[in-house]
Design goal:
heterodimer; A: MetI-like fold; globular; B: 528 residues; alpha+beta; Methane Monooxygenase Hydroxylase, Chain G, domain 1; MetI-like fold; four-stranded antiparallel β-sheet; elongated
């Protein structure tokens, strides 16, 4: 940001004497930029305004939601929280549980793998890295049939890990997340100087101590990014969750809320909107607070 | 950054380089103990179910895990094993298993072995034998599995479950001529029987190993009656005969018993059908047609989405790259919101707004028009891309902003010196640089949109439905949602065909990825 700002300042300073600040000039220089920015901002924001307005509308239907902010109340929030047909709080809790455990476990697993690939030299290292990337090209979604059949078979042996269980869903997510996470973190681990490990080794620290007490702290930014991306991914994941979680009280927000508006004509649209707002607020807040790091993390992996 | 503080930390711990302190040893023992306990239980259950192959695999894997962690060698393996086990089971095995299922007729009516099909056919056609004696029974339970403890007319006790035929229990407890308890089984109390009535009345315990001997069923939990099947199974000839109509159904290698008239008994069983599913996909016109146009649409959708998101993102990035521009921070916040809001929710919101008769867009923006945003085949495609651009442009905006800032300003200056004008500089210098740095993101984004299940499924359920085909496919379905629908919706779930589709998609995606990766040489990074 700073370097470009400076060069722009330099450029504009150089041209300044030739410039009369007329309205036409202003439009050519920055005015059109505001026009574009406002137009796209309206496009970006109006669906969100619509959902906020409809959540605040005590009326239930889709038609009733069209007059933006015509009525304001919080009835729809109570409706979604107290509807026994749609156990919203259970869904919320399930989602937090699944997303939280998946994020922590998959980040830790990815970090372990990335540490091994980054710091150790062993036979099959290069092959292993490439294999992980290639296997990842088969998206788990495509294997939904096989996953469903496998989980129902596992359920015959281990009812606690099979179909319709959160542990089962988490295990599936963990299997699908390893490749991307390892690859993202591997690059970051490489930027931590090896000298730190060596110094610690000389001081008598074992590999586990170095990993858990030194390296994990130094790579904390990428751990946060990977964990957050994982939370967002499992928060929004619909296909596998809908295939594996059968009972309404076991489902996640994605599966439950989709069912809630499966027929928009009859759905309680305001209650859905209220549920959507409550579900989105933590994610949006987390995202906005950490967006700088997220973008850094994504681009560090891709744009070199 | 935090290097100074961490560099001083190890100085505190001048412990000898022992392989593990007592605490870490304890942690290791506890974790290995948990793994071993789970494996042991799994092996026990698998052996009970006669599933020897999987049991041996479980034993081998847990032995390997113990060896890796108890040995002082294999340091990298200690770090890689947890992840690799999950990767092996839920990614590699899933891939292989998908391949296997693609070569079978697995699906509705074909989801078990031949023996299971025979048993379930005989069980489903059971009829009570008139004037049969009544057997006093006690309902018993073992690990949640229900069984019947039966006293036969001679006064001997037998026990059996839905899967295990009656076998003699030598040391049962009797109460007034009725067996009431057997070792290893928990007898259900009256309340339990009431609570599990549905399960108990559905229970049919085979009378003997020969399925033609029928089964015992109890309507009330205290007396059972003999039931015989209206079908008779001839194991040597492999045929089913309906004893009432006399029709003979025989196994002609299609995974079901078929009568001469072509009538099939359901359920059938699972068989390997070779390339049948693939042949069907490419030759049966009611399947080939959808497969072809869905593939074309998938490409159009993915390419259009990436191009439009990138275009809009780049336009915004350029718009904001100006020192005089005020309020960039606020615009940026507004523009990022679609990316921060959970996608599945915003897709559902768009679904509501695009509703033809009640939606916000028609009712308010177009003043009560009834534009079929989601119900006209062509307009639905436009809508899908529009919503996807809404979801995706903020990401490209962030990426392009970063990439533009990474281009040194000196390049622009040098080009300006050489006489290039604004647009020329951009098109000939910045754009190529930008495209080469963002290429991996564009490829990843293409791959993501190629399989963007949530968007098409939640926006419009892939609709409007195509009525000209037998498959449950709509005009905006992508390959991935077509697989989902073939496998999990509709009257006939066809896991075999769905898996065959999955493999075809995988080959397409892998082909594209290999070509594009070899072009951009993004893999060079890890070949250092």
């Amino acid at each position: 940001m700073t370097t470009t700002d400076l060069t722009h300042l330099r450029n504009t300073a150089r041209r300044a004497p030739h410039r009369r600040r007329t309205a036409g000039r202003w439009f050519v220089d920055t005015g059109w930029r505001h026009v574009v920015a406002i137009a796209v901002s309206v496009f970006a924001v109006f669906p969100l305004l619509f959902v906020v307005s409809s959540a605040l509308n005590p009326n239930g239907t889709l038609t009733g939601s069209n007059a933006l902010f015509s009525r304001i109340g919080i009835d729809s929030f109570w409706r979604i929280l107290s509807d026994p047909q749609n156990p919203y709080l259970r869904w919320f809790g399930n989602t937090l549980l699944v997303a939280g455990v998946t994020a922590v476990a998959s980040t830790l697993m990815g970090a372990l793998a990335a540490y091994a690939f980054s710091r150790m030299r062993f036979a099959g290292r290069r092959f292993g890295l490439i294999t992980i990337v290639v296997i990842q090209m088969f998206p788990q979604l495509l294997g939904a049939v096989a996953i469903f059949l496998m989980m129902s078979a596992i359920g015959d042996v281990f009812p606690a890990f099979g179909l319709n269980t959160h542990i089962g869903l988490i295990m599936v997510y963990l299997g699908g997340s390893l490749g991307v996470n390892t690859y993202l973190m591997y690059g970051f681990f490489n930027t931590v100087p090896v000298e730190i490990d060596e110094a610690a080794k000389i001081d008598g620290a074992g590999h586990a101590r170095i990993f858990f007490t030194i390296i994990l702290r130094l790579v904390a930014p990428i751990l946060a990014v990977v964990a957050l991306l994982s939370v967002i991914a499992s928060f929004s994941e619909y296909l596998i969750a809908s295939v594996l979680l059968i009972d309404p009280e076991n489902q996640t927000l994605a599966v439950g809320l989709v069912k809630l508006v499966s027929n928009p004509r009859y759905a309680d649209w305001s209650a859905f909107s209220a549920g959507a707002i409550m579900a989105a607020i933590p994610v949006v807040a987390l995202f906005l607070a950490l967006q700088r790091y997220i973008v850094g993390g994504i681009t560090a992996g891709a744009v070199k | 950054m935090a290097q100074t503080s961490t560099a001083s930390r190890p100085a505190r711990a001048v412990a000898p380089p022992s392989p593990g302190t007592v605490r870490s040893l304890l942690v290791k023992i506890v974790l290995l103990g948990i793994v071993d306990a789970i494996s042991l239980y799994a092996v026990f259950m698998l052996v009970l179910q006669d599933n020897w192959v999987v049991a041996i695999v479980v034993v081998a894997v847990s032995a390997l895990v113990n060896w890796i962690y108890l040995s002082r060698r294999f340091l990298p393996a200690k770090y890689l094993t947890p992840g690799l086990i999950f990767l092996a089971v839920f990614q590699v095995f899933v891939l292989l298993y998908t391949g296997y299922v693609g070569f079978t007729n697995y699906g509705t009516g074909h989801n078990g072995t031949r023996d299971q099909a025979v048993n379930s056919l005989l069980a489903s056609s059971l009829q009570r034998v008139e004037d049969s004696p009544s057997y006093p029974v006690t309902v018993v339970d073992r690990f949640g599995e229900l069984g019947l403890l039966v006293t036969d007319p001679e006064g001997d006790a037998f026990v059996g479950t839905a899967d295990e035929p009656l076998s003699r229990v030598p040391d049962a407890e009797f109460d007034g001529g009725r067996a009431v308890a057997a070792p290893g089984w928990t007898s259900l109390t009256f309340q339990d029987v009431i609570a599990r009535t549905a399960e108990i009345t559905a229970l049919a315990v085979p009378y003997s190993d020969d399925p033609n001997d029928g089964a015992l069923r109890t309507p009330d939990g205290s007396n059972a009656y003999r039931y015989l099947s209206t079908l008779e199974y001839d194991a040597s000839a492999g045929t089913m005969t309906n004893t009432q109509t006399g029709v003979v159904y025989s196994d002609i290698g299609t995974g079901a018993f078929v009568a001469d008239s072509g009538e099939e008994l359901r359920p059938g069983w699972q068989i390997t059908v070779g390339f049948d599913n693939f042949v069907r996909a490419f030759t049966e016109s009611s399947i080939r047609g959808p497969l072809v146009y869905v593939t074309i649409w998938t490409f159009v959708f993915a390419i259009a989405s990436v191009a439009l998101c990138f275009g809009l993102g780049l336009l915004l990035a350029i718009t904001f790259q100006n020192a005089r521009m005020r309020g960039v921070k606020y615009y940026r916040l507004l523009l990022i919101l679609p990316y921060a809001f959970p996608a599945f929710l915003s897709i559902l919101v768009w679904n509501g707004m695009m509703n033809e008769s009640f939606g916000f867009i028609n009712q308010v923006l177009f003043g009560g028009a009834s534009i079929p945003w989601l119900s006209d085949p062509n307009l639905a495609k436009v809508s899908a891309i529009l919503v996807n651009v809404w979801l995706g442009f903020p990401y490209m905006f962030l990426i392009c902003t970063g990439a533009l800032q990474a281009i040194p300003e000196e390049l622009t200056e040098a080009a300006t010196m050489d006489g290039a004008r604004g647009w020329g500089v951009f098109r000939q210098i910045k754009l190529p640089l930008l495209l080469s740095t963002t290429a991996p993101v564009l490829i990843a984004s293409f791959a993501f949109n190629f399989n963007n299940f949530n968007l098409v499924y939640l926006l419009n359920n892939g609709g409007p439905r195509d009525t000209t085909t037998s498959l449950p496919v709509g005009h905006t379905d992508l390959l991935i949602s077509m697989v989902y629908k073939v496998a999990f919706t509709g009257q006939n779930r066809d896991y075999g065909l769905a898996s065959a589709f999955s493999i075809i998609i995988f080959l397409i995606v892998a082909g594209i990825a290999v070509i594009s990766f070899s072009r951009t040489k993004a893999l060079e990074e890890i070949q250092r």
